[in-house]
Design a protein that fits this description.
This protein has 14 helices and 13 strands. Strand 1 (8-12), helix 1 and strand 2 (36-41) form a beta-alpha-beta unit. The chain folds into two domains: 8-166 and 351-369, Glycogen Phosphorylase B (Rossmann fold); 172-344, Rossmann fold. The protein has a seven-stranded parallel beta sheet, with helices on both faces. A six-stranded parallel beta sheet has the order 10-9-8-11-12-13, sandwiched between helices. By secondary structure, it is an alpha/beta fold.
Length: 370
């Protein structure tokens, strides 16, 4: 770093929007504080970088070493080792002042490289269960920040700091939009999505459940539904045959706006989704991803269900019948929707990006004083 140049902060995240979006939110706050941002991610994470305010970035190889047989695990270890070499080379060239890892295996080689080079780093855990990559990093981290009131799988001796989940500006901009109660004979806006990678379960089960309702309910419904590309035509036909107004697409760039306009959200329970439901304050029916590592999505969902803000339907019982049984009482009771929306608001601690940026500033000051 040349004299007078703003400190460069390396943010490492990868794989899914659940890791990338909080990193993006911190990047936005760091930029407001005149830091420079270096993004470290993998090819999968690169899909979410269109609005990421990075001054610089580089891609690394990574893989999940905890799945598959011996050959797959061996290949994953080689991929992570290559990612470590790349991170060491790029960090030596760019000289970041500090680093933050947001989980996912792309953060592992980057934070290991930071440790080797004496770059102070912290980690942030978005879920209610400490992820496996973060478990391998947290003991040498200067800080271990987390999103929800409970953090499971934390190693002994580590003192976590609850900060909430960093929320992107696109979410914060609609966070103060009030919940508009369903009017008598008015439309009921439903938002249905299966997470940042989509979900086949979420393509037709909700449609079949809604199609089974009496015409008096179906006529009020206005559905926004994220479905997989290969399911789009079938979903459109099913909605038309059911007489339900619906907009169907494989991805919505303005999902926070659509969440703010919704009377009810049906979705997975990834950390970002749970946080955004809390930030905006909307009721939900959540079906945790059954194969999620350490079943962390179930723990996430309980953050809202314990506050009477969400109904949780395990994936193993997420069916046309169970979803219909959960939907009917609340769609016919506008007061219930409104009370769930009020209960959701503020369950997850707010101001996470600012709190994390403060911690990053402390890292830089401590390093400069050393």
């Amino acid at each position: 770093m040349s004299q007078g140049e703003a400190p460069l902060i390396a943010l490492a995240a990868g794989g899914t929007g659940g890791h990338m979006f909080p990193a993006e939110a911190l990047a936005q706050e760091l930029k407001r504080r005149s830091f420079r941002v270096l993004l470290v991610t993998d090819k999968r994470g690169a899909r979410y970088t269109q609005s990421f305010p990075a001054d610089e970035q580089f891609l690394i190889s990574s893989a999940t070493p905890s799945v598959g047989g011996p050959v797959a695990k061996g290949a994953a270890a080689i991929s992570i080792a290559i990612g470590l070499m790349t991170s060491l080379r790029e960090f030596k060239k760019r000289c970041p002042a500090a680093a933050v890892g947001f989980g996912g295996y792309p953060s592992l080689p980057a934070m290991k490289a930071a440790a080797i080079l004496g770059i102070p780093y912290g980690v942030h855990e978005q879920n209610s269960v400490l992820g496996r990559a973060n478990r391998m990093l947290v003991k040498k981290a200067v800080f271990a920040a987390h999103a929800f009131p409970i953090l499971q799988k934390l190693p002994n001796g580590v003192k976590p700091i609850e900060v909430g989940n960093p929320v992107r500006d696109a979410v914060l901009s609609v966070g103060d939009i009030p919940f508009v109660p369903v009017q008598e004979n008015g439309e009921i806006n439903l938002l249905i999505f299966g997470g940042s990678q989509g979900a086949s379960l979420f393509s037709f089960t909700p449609i079949n459940a809604l199609a089974s309702f009496p015409a008096a309910i179906r006529e009020k419904l206005c559905v926004t539904h994220q479905v997989r590309e290969q399911d789009m035509e079938g979903a459109r036909i099913a909605y038309t045959e059911a007489g339900i107004k619906a907009e169907v697409a494989p991805f919505f760039n303005d999902l926070p706006n659509r969440m703010a306009a919704a009377h009810l959200v049906i979705s997975r329970s990834g950390a970002s989704t749970v946080t955004e439901l809390s930030t905006i304050g909307r009721p939900s029916i959540l079906s945790p991803l059954a194969i999620a590592m350490d079943d962390h999505q179930t723990s996430n969902a309980h953050v809202l269900s314990k506050a009477n803000a969400a109904i949780v339907l395990p994936e193993t019982s997420f069916s046309e019948e169970s979803l219909g049984a959960a939907l009917k009482p609340i769609l016919s009771n506008p007061g219930r929707l409104q009370s769930m929306a009020s209960a959701a608001k503020g369950v997850v601690m707010s101001g996470a990006a600012e709190k994390l940026a403060d911690l990053v500033g402390d890292l830089c000051r401590d390093k400069a004083a050393a």
